[in-house]
Amino acid sequence: MLKYVLSTIAWLEKLAKTEIIKEKYEITEVNDRLVCFEAPIEAIARINLNSRVGNKLYLQLAEKKLETFDDLYDLIYEIDFKKYIRENSPILVKATSVRSGLSSTPAIQKIAKKAITSKLLEGSSEVFLKEKEEFENFEIFILIINDKVKVLANTSGEALHKRAYRKYSSDAPIKENLAAAIVLLSNWNFKKAFYDIFCWSWTIAIEALMIAKNIAPWINRKFAFENWKFIPKWLIQEEIKRAKEKEFDWDYKIFASDIDYEVIEMAKENAKLAGLEGQIIFEQKDFKSFLEEKISWTLVTNPPYWLRLKDDDLEWLYKDLDKIFTQNEDLNWWFITSFENSKDFYKTQYKNRKLYNWWEKVYFYKKS
Ligand SMILES: C[S@@+](CC[C@H](N)C(=O)[O-])C[C@H]1O[C@@H](n2cnc3c(N)ncnc32)[C@H](O)[C@@H]1O
Fold first, then answer.
1. pLDDT: is 277 or 145 the higher one?
2. Which of 186, 195, 199, 316 to mutate to test the pocket of ligand 1 (most atoms within 8 A of CB)?
3. What CATH number should be reported for the domain whose range is 176-213+249-366?
4. Could you tell me the residue ranges of all domains in the chain?
5. Which atom of ligand 1 is closest in space to residue 202's alpha carbon?
């Protein structure tokens, strides 16, 4: 059995844990933004391909409670890096320390690099250690929490929230794994129509469709582990085949609308890239037109909260949204926003929980 750590968004650890349990792997520890588990080698491909809410999947190379830099050096030096790292592969060392004696991350990185280089140079005269902020890096992450050191290798490469379909986008959209998480939290039962009425680049609607069809979110991308020495080439192919066999189809009704014509065009491109062209019905539409309709769908959306709109306009927008909610008892609605005033406005009526989109605090509201 190998040991793994899946990083995720703060307060979504429970969803990440569910993804691991679904594959029948054994959870060993759940910490702030981290889910640790044990599983066979296939998990390296399976979790990378299938995790909707994960950020990065790490393989744990070593773990020990320790307090001195000498002990840290020894722990890292003992790892057989040549087993994992190809010759001349650039290596990147990252570090985080929380509530621990060894607290200086630059010093931790320096010691770690020294230990890794010495180990790799053992019996040879080649120099391996180069750093490039690129996908091909072999990324080592030294994580220290309460003096317990984990030496981790990033199996994903680029973080898992960057789905292959996200080519066309403007400004900072909702992170794909956060969008997937709010669809999962909405308990959409796939029978009702699903709506996003402020869709912008379509992230929420695309994630909803992928969840409905059980499409592995990462089926179209490359992972760092595919370049690792000890990983057989067939592993990823087998897991892609397995994931494709688990896809299913049905007559889902997923709608996405936005007032802006250009964003609808961009959303179409994103759907094409996701291989989901024509499977989401989209419209250029002002959400206010829903004030005149009786609706009973599942609505998961991310209303405007910044940019071109002034606070006063935003107040009105949120009041109209509230009217849509109250007029439609059968509407199962959820929305996520960082508009701070919405917290006071909705405080008394609606439940909310805090989450993070990138580094921005957001509130996720639900019908109570
Ligand atoms: C926060 S963005 C949604 C971002 C989206 N979740 C994503 O990840 O790409 C809000 C969207 O609301 C749209 N919008 C603003 N006013 C609107 C209105 N009256 N009716 C419908 N859409 C509107 C904007 O064009 C913008 O695309």
1. 145
2. 199
3. 3.40.50.150
4. 2-154, 176-213+249-366
5. 9
